[in-house]
Amino acid sequence: MSTNNHASTSGHHFAHHFRDANHEFESAKQGIWLFMVTEILMFGGLFVAYTIFHNIYPEMFAEGAKQLDWRMGFFNTLVLIMSSLTMALGIYYLQVGQSKKAVRSLAITLVCGAIFMVVKYFEYTAKIHHGFLPGRFLDVHHVNPEHANLGLYFGFYFCMTGLHGIHVLLGMGLITWVMIRAMKGEFGPDYYTPVEGVGIFWHIVDLIWIFLFPLLYLVG
Amino acid sequence: MGTTTATHSGEINYINEFKGLKSWFTSLDHKRIGLMYMISVMFFFLLGGLAALLLRLELLKPGGQFLTPDQYNQVLTYHGAIMVFMVIIPGIPAVLGNFFLPLHIGAKDVAFPRLNLASWYVFMFGALLAASTMFTSKIDTGWTFYTPYSIKTGTAVVTMVLAAFIMGMSSILTGLNFIVTVHKLRAPGMTMHRMPLFVWALYSTAILQVLATPVLGITLLLLVAERTLGVGIFDPALGGDPVLFQHFFWFYSHPAVYIMILPAMGVVSELITTFSKKTIFGYTAIAYSSLGIAGVSFFVWGHHMFVSGQSEIAGIVFSFITMLVGVPTAIKMFNWLATLYKGSISFQSPMLYAMGFMFLFAIGGVTGIMLAVLATDVHFHDTYFVVAHFHYVMVGGTLMALMGGFYYWFPKMFGKMYNESLARLTFIFIFVGFNVTFFPQFILGAMGMPRRYFDYIPAYQSLNAISTVGSWLIGTGFLLSLYVLVQGLRKGEKAPANPWGSKTLEWTVPSPPIHTNFEVDPIVKAGPYEYK
User: Fold this and answer.
1) Where are the beta strands (DSSP E) in B336-440?
2) What is the C-alpha separation between A154 and A160, in angstroms, rounded?
3) Please, what is the Cα angle at A188 between A184 and A192, to 5 degrees?
4) Under a CB-based contact definition with an 8 Å cutoff, are residues B404 and B350 in contact?
5) Thinking of the domain A61-218, which architecture would CATH place it in?
6) What is the ipTM score, two decimals?
7) Angle B195-B196-B201 (CA atoms, 0-180°, nearest 5)?
8) Contact flag B184-A30 (C-beta cutoff 8 Å)
9) In this predicted model, what pLDDT tens digit does every residue of B180-237 receive, in sequence order?
10) Which among B15, B20, B18 has a CA at the least distance from the CA of B5?
């Protein structure tokens, strides 16, 4: 309801039900963090299921991890850590009023996200090509008969990395959105709430990958 | 958004300030969004209620009447899924909570008004998607979607499960919004310990919505993955475990039971103190027992699975923790009773519903203890005893409180009074009808009649017939309520600002309130129940 906005002393507009711009910022940030809690709990379900089945079939999980290329996973981990740095820098540059540098940092973050997804694409196609598919679609001819239920591992692999990949794509969309707004000069030291929120989201998505990498690639 | 038009009556409020359908569908006003939720919930309640009447009609006599067994399973599933996901979960928080939470704490709106509107659209999208399966291949799994049947059945499980996922997102967004609102938007002087107990209940509910619903989300996504990709996590043939689905499902769905009942308890706290004209007894105890119930609720999910093949030790532990729920619940009950003691009680329709709540919820709670005990549960499990128990809690509890809250706040929401004698009559129909319908089901369950079947042996006939007649009484009561609502809206007298003499903030503003709730930002100097 734009008609109800009042101008604050710092020049930024805030919604009518907040006392001042800082009140709005603090509330928005609390909302974002609560949303992150729900994200972690959602992935938490997958982590719990992973733990249970890893306990039952440790060798099968080790066999599955052998089929993955840890170098690709490691490279992607570095890419995402790098992107977290540039994301944080982007917010820092907005806080100190250097919005050109901020836009450049956000652009690098976006490129990092894209590199991550491209690597993931090559990994997925290789797995699909070799018949390492989830559950009942597993091509058993390629598999040691001892590990006939290897499809379960790949079920986890595709569900966990797939859900994570969807979040990377969503994050890239959000980064594009705040980058365009930053280019239009909508953000500055007194108002950068959306960038801060997207930043928190991006860091959490990175953090989840940092747990996925050892669980899927390095286990066993 | 819309244009401001001066009204002939001269009084501007949130209903007449902006005109036209568009001004409703794009409104960020929590009060209007609350009303939009109310209309949606009423519509789905009608659907779920018709399904219930159909089920009872089929069970009037043994043998098939007019439904085939498959159709019976479908009607049963729709009754459960609609009532749980589209009526009882959003019922009190999204309708009454949306409308009154900001008014209760002296705020102009919820923290994120745009998100609030979005959550209504997300909810409607999910709900209509769920309803759309009625016209395709339907669904027959029951609202719990238990594996392995839900993986194998040829019905529209994927659509229905995605719909539940989407409605869960809406529930999360509402909860998140409420938590931030309570933390950040309280008026000056409105300390946590001066908040009305309804707000405490909504706050505890919101915590559950935010913490439990994501787990349902991933469970439902895994079920979709199971059906489409065959990942095998719930499929024993591929090394998975179908019981894991039950663990995951109840890890959400047991806290969800408290998502349904906690707001109802909040409403009852408001009603009891208002209509006893007495300060609530044990404010802090009631407030923190809401949080206590929310906390314990995360550790009791295994009591749904006593006969599902979990270990005996797990069963014993879950049985004990489950009985712990009785403690904070009883704290509330006894505090309400103590509030009544020496109060100036008036039995207006909202208070009748609050009394009905206490009576029915006590029965629902005590039979819950019988189900929490392992030895008796093995006998009662999957019988009508369980059906009667959770209807006493969900309908006798939540729905009674929803009706009481609705009659209590109707004057504030619409600025009109309703016909009080007719409103009392609705209570009599619903209360009597409810007991006639569900009390015989306790006996049927104890006699061993299994739940979910479309047929039964002739020995169960007379009690089933009584139960079916009761369902007609309930139906009449709700139809009459609809009439009271429409008649009140059309012909009701103008409501004063505070018809009941309540002390909470929403009664200090005109009925109905203005768009920004308060003409002057309130400064709170006293607690919510300073009667005497």
Assistant:
1) none
2) 10
3) 95
4) yes
5) Up-down Bundle (1.20)
6) 0.91
7) 100
8) yes
9) 999 999 999 999 999 999 999 999 999 999 999 999 999 999 999 999 988 889 988 8
10) B18
What tokens appear for B392 in the block? 């006493």
* Class of residue B22 by CB neighbours under 10 A (exposed 0-12, middle 13-18, buried 19+): exposed
- Give residue A11's identity as a one-letter amino acid code: G
Nearest CA distance, B290 vs chain A (angstrom): 20
Q: Which of A202, A164, A196, A159 is nearest to A181 (CA)?
A: A196
pTM of the entire structure? 0.94
The Cβ-side half-sphere exposure at A99, using a 13 Å CA radius, reads 16
Q: What is the pLDDT of residues A77-109, one digit of tens each?
A: 999 999 999 999 999 999 999 999 999 999 999
pLDDT at A7 over 60: no
Looking at this protein, which amino acid is placed at residue B228? Answer: T
Closest residue in A to B223 (Cα–Cα): A159
Torsional sign, CA B83, B84, B89, B94: negative
B174 interfaces chain A, CB cutoff of 8 Å: no
Give the number of other CB atoms < 10 A from CB of residue B147. 25
Residue B10 CB neighbour total at 10 angstroms: 6
Q: Which residues does chain B have within 8 Å of residue A26's beta carbon, measured at their own beta carbons?
A: 184
CB B397 within 8 A of CB B361: yes
Task: Tell me the residue type at B531.
Answer: Y
Closest CA to B237 of A58, A158, A138: A138
Asked if the Cβ–Cβ distance from B232 to A152 is below 8 Å, we say yes
8 A C-beta contact, residue B267 and residue B409: no
Instruction: Give domain limits for chain A.
Output: 61-218
**B513 interface with A at CB cutoff 8 Å:** no
**B109 in A contact zone (CB under 8 Å):** yes
Task: Give, in words, the CATH class of B21-508.
Answer: mainly alpha
Give B476-506 as a 3 state SS string: HHHHHHHHHHHHHHHHCCECCCCCCCCCCHH
What tokens does B489 get?
């809206």
Give whole-number Cα distances, B495 to B273, B410, B413, B419, in Å. Answer: 21, 9, 10, 12
Inter-chain residue contact B239 with A158, CB threshold 8 Å: no
Side chain identity at residue B284, one-letter code: T
Q: Are A175 and A109 within 8 A, CB to CB? A: yes
Residues of A in contact with B210 (CB under 8 A): 34, 37-38
- Residue B70's CB is within 10 A of a number of other CB atoms, namely 12
Instruction: Give mean pLDDT, residues A48-71.
Output: 92
pLDDT over 50 at B6, yes or no: no
What burial letters (b/e) apply to A154-181, b meaning 16+ CB within 10 Å? bbbbbbbbbbbbebbeebbebbeebbee
Q: In angstroms, how far is the first alpha carbon of chain B from the final one?
A: 45
Residue from the list A26, A151, A155 with its beta carbon closest to the beta carbon of B184: A26
CB atoms within 10 A of CB B320: 13
Mean pLDDT, chain B, rounded, equals: 93
Question: Which distant-in-sequence residues (6+ apart) come within 8 Å of A148 by Cβ?
Answer: A140
Contacts of B239 in chain A (CB under 8 A): 53, 56-57, 60, 149, 151-152
Q: Which residues contact A49 (CB under 8 A, 6 or more apart)?
A: A156, B222, B233, B244, B248
Tell me if chain A has a CB within 8 Å of the CB of B491.
no
Q: How many CB atoms lie within 10 A of CB A96?
A: 11
Could you report the per-residue pLDDT of B105-155, keeping only the tens digit for each?
999 999 999 999 999 999 999 999 999 998 888 888 989 999 889 988 888
Looking at residues B305-319, what average pLDDT do you find? Answer: 91
DSSP H helical ranges for A96-219: 99-129, 150-183, 193-213
How many Cβ atoms sit within 10 Å of the Cβ of residue B496?
13
DSSP A14: E
- Nearest C-alpha neighbor of B513 from the set B32, B24, B184, B1: B32
pLDDT at residue A10, rounded to an integer: 44
